[in-house]
């Protein structure tokens, strides 16, 4: 495991050439990622939750074996995200669709991840289905300073009853000395149709905006990363009108938000599919200070969708879709019905 410690960061070279000399700059690179783990529930019935409706609890036999395979599959994906460029598993990973802290403990203790010494941040949400968001981080790279969970109060447009959904997780900490803030989201679903459910996601975006504003009141130059399964595309009202996220870096003003995934969406790329149409619900956005060209501290470099071939369904009616874990009442041996997304942050070093 000592070898893994030696590759916690990768130094890569960028050569800048002019007529007189060649300047070589060295950068440190870290992966920041988000992954919807698709119904990562344990096999224990929790009487305080509606977890009995989860796919694994609906199985009559083989639950323990399925759970172990599901956990290992999640670890397999996590260890791979961003390694092509960073040479390391994610420094920070936000997650959605987890039942509790215990399932994350099992994931980070999988043999594939154990050597990375991941810490866990998790709060129980009031979500009716019993699913939460959370975050894991490599302790040698990121040190949390403050964490908090922010409840979303929304109501059904017709019944006016409260809709119990996921809290939003805020984590502030030092990424090798740089203060950054991470907001992990899983906004309300499109159950009942996009139009009928739109107000719920608008409400989620407004809560997100309040969290962002509270950080920027303290520090207008705060480095804030917004990530999650938004159940909306980059062009929807919640993202474009409430968060006012921009698709072009040069249009982002101080306190503004940049969304690199809008260009992915307009190019026809997605992270999840339904009825032969792709959506890009999984996104990572950031505030303007992460876009500056002074690389003496960590800045945004590039965004990606982790859609490697092994994460794609090879045959059948879902061919080409993300290779999900559960379908038709059973375990498929797959991973998730969402592709992960990730960005690289880079910092110049001597």
From TrEMBL:
Residues 31-347 form the Endonuclease/exonuclease/phosphatase domain. InterPro entries: Endo/exonu/phosph_ase_sf, Endo/exonuclease/phosphatase. Keywords: Endonuclease, Hydrolase, Nuclease. Coiled coil: none annotated. Gene3D superfamilies: Endonuclease/exonuclease/phosphatase (3.60.10.10). Transmembrane segments: none annotated. GO terms for molecular function: endonuclease activity. It holds the Pfam family Exo_endo_phos_3. SUPFAM superfamilies: DNase I-like (SSF56219). It comes from the Bacteria. This is Endonuclease/exonuclease/phosphatase family protein. It comes from Gelidibacter pelagius.
